[in-house]
Description:
Layout: E1 7-11, H1 16-27, E2 32-37, H2 44-47, E3 52-55, H3 61-68, E4 73-76, H4 82-99, E5 103-107, H5 134-151, E6 156-161, E7 163-165, H6 170-180, E8 186-187, E9 196-198, H7 199-211, E10 218-222, H8 230-238, E11 249-250, H9 252-260, H10 265-277, H11 280-286, H12 290-305, H13 308-319, H14 340-345, H15 355-361, H16 369-382
Amino acid sequence: MNSLNHTILVTGATGFIGGRVCERLVQEGAKEVRALVHTFRHAPRIARLPICLCKGDLLDSDTLRKALGDARVVIHCGLGDAAGIVRGTRNLLEVAAAAGVERFVHMSTAAVYGYRPSPGCESEDAPLRRTGDPYCDNKARAEHVVSRFARRGLPTVILRPAIVYGPYSFWSTRLLNALQEGQAVLIDGGKGACNTTYVDNLVDAVFLAVRDDRAVGECFFVTDGERITWGDFVRAHMAMLDPEPIVPVVTGDEILAHYRAQPGSWTRSFREVRQLLFGVEFRKMLLQIPVCERLLTAAWARLQAMDPEKKDRLKARLRGGSVAAAPAQPNYRERHIPDLTTWLSETHSVFFRIDKARRLLGYSPRIPFAQGIKRVEQWLRFANYL
Length: 386
């Protein structure tokens, strides 16, 4: 089908992938693009485009019907919280099916196999299993819902990208901030599979999925087709900085040992409550109560009257720590311990295969990793991250 001659609805249009889909549709001369927008203040990137911004919510079917209008194509990049992933997708599928939509492209994720997929998950034939993670499991459930509607006759296509990077991607901005703050590490030397997907390669796959009837009822992994490791990804960002930081290595065993040594749930809960009680937002809420405002004002005045040494000791005791000066500059020799999700994501060995996308869609990644990273660096400099 010639998708550009049809009205197209894009959900998740204010996000990284959905925003790029909208830009590329306009660049290629799409007849009409409708963008589902939950919060207009999040839409500055797409508000400059000649598209229709439609106020709506994936959890509200009435707004979805209005946003869909006469659209014949739906590109579903919307997400929401973990609990709303399945319900929002089902609502949109029901509205699309009732309206006779001719192509429904569902943006899923390779994470349907978990943050640490097991060997054997390299192709789309591998069965989905529960992982225990709300995001991964709900994205898998959403795929099952899409497949049910496909069996009922709705022309659907499921795409499974992996680590989608490019201009505006948090993968690069978050990593760059970590490098600049001395919080980046290479887990097990960075040998884990990264499975990069440059955003324009992904959008190319979206357009192929819309146009090619062989895609209907199928799901596809979409990556750059290169065996890029996390070490490759991190070092490419390290090279953007001057001077280039020294990033330490931490092993998976050290990460696990660190979390096994953490205090029990009661101690952690007490620490979290203490942080909440002495947080800025909590104090702001208390100041809305007249009695609390008077008490806090009196306590603050008394604190300010103390000598500096006594004041620092009291603050440290309340926060559960000791008085220590923060380092003036990032210390790259002090290893940051990443969270367990990062450990899972960066230590598996599965490289997803794109043979099926090549065969059925004619997908061929046109932007290799080396070129994609150069584009990312140009954008990071433009956006003053560098």
